[in-house]
Structure formats: C-alpha cells, structure tokens
Amino acid sequence: MVAYGVFSTGSISSYCTIEQVRALLAGYDLSRIGDTQDVDERIQTLQPMTAQAVDRIAGHDFRWHADERITVDGTGSDRLSLASLGIVPLAQVYQISISGQQVPADDYVVYPQVAEIRLKPSASIGTNFPGGLQNIELLVDWGYGQVPAEVSMAQAKLIAAQILAEAAGETSQTAAVRIGDYSVRYAREGKYGAVIERLTQEAHDALYPYRGVGMAVV
Q1: CA dist., res. 164 & res. 193, Å (int)
Q2: What is the reported pTM?
C-alpha cells in the first residue's frame, strides 16, 4: 500500500536543543573544534541532518500533522493499516473517500493505538476496501503534539557522538558506527571511541521501539 501525504506543518530543523547537546559534551576537550561559539555553530549545522536521520531511522517523523490529506492504495481487505506507512500515532479520522465517494462514518471503526481503520461487517460500501492504486483518500490528524523526550535525547546523542569524533581528530584505524543509513566515523581505539559507541547505541535503543523492525547498529 502506498501513501501520498500533503504535510501541513512544514519541516522543523531539530528535535533537540543546543543545550541538550552541550550537557552531553560537558567535560570533554573540544578545543580542536574551537571555542564555545564554534561548537554551538557546529551543533546547529548538525541539527537538521540528524533530525532527518531520526525520521528515517524511525520510519516516520515526530511532528504534528493536522487536517492532512493522505491518498493510499486500496487493500482489497476490510482494513487499512496506516502504521505500515508511518502514519503514527493516528489521532483522528475526519473523512474517508473511495474513488471520490465519501464513506459514511458509521461504516468503519478507527483503532488509534495501532493506526488502523476497519470496515464494519454491516458497512454500506461492502465488507472490503476495494483494491486499487491511490483510490482511497483520508483526511486525518496524526503525529506528535510534543516530541517524545527519548527521541529528543536520541538526536542529541547522535550530534554529540559526531562532535566527539571530530574533536578527537583521529584518522587512523577508523571505523563507522551506524544506525540505519546514518553513520559516525571514528577511531575505535581512539580518545573518545568508547563514548561514541555508547552514545550511538543509546540513540539506537531509544529509537528502536518507534520502528520495531529493520534497524540495527553494525
């Protein structure tokens, strides 16, 4: 099933603050990067790309999407699973249309906890959503009114790991620690190698439950 959404909230540059990253870096020698202002500027540069990495790792973003129109492929079954499309959590379903025809609200039940919509056996349109390509349009509210604290801290840890890798300045015997397609290159036996591995692993552990499958640190 394919979904096409028109996001109404736009993008945000970061889920975490500079102060959160600073707290993780307290006590480490960052002089190779520069003074406090230089470090802050480097954090700001890393914020947008690591926010995007968090979205890719989780399989969805952590913003609030109000009155969003989403077009999905019909399943040929009695249910639509929006969780599989990253439309989670599902807050409200205002309207469902199939090939331009609105489905009566009494025809379906919404299960917000699992982001699923299921037709009732007595539905006037039949027992299944008809199979098809982009033939079902939804008007929904979904997402997060407030970024979960563990997600915010996971991004801060990804940034801190990158800052420490750059502050160490070690280029020999480099390795890469990865979460999904995001990676930090560092010297495994170097100055901050163990800390970088720990921070990245903790970010993985925090984000893993939001994805469930398909993500690993290697």
Answers
A1: 9
A2: 0.81
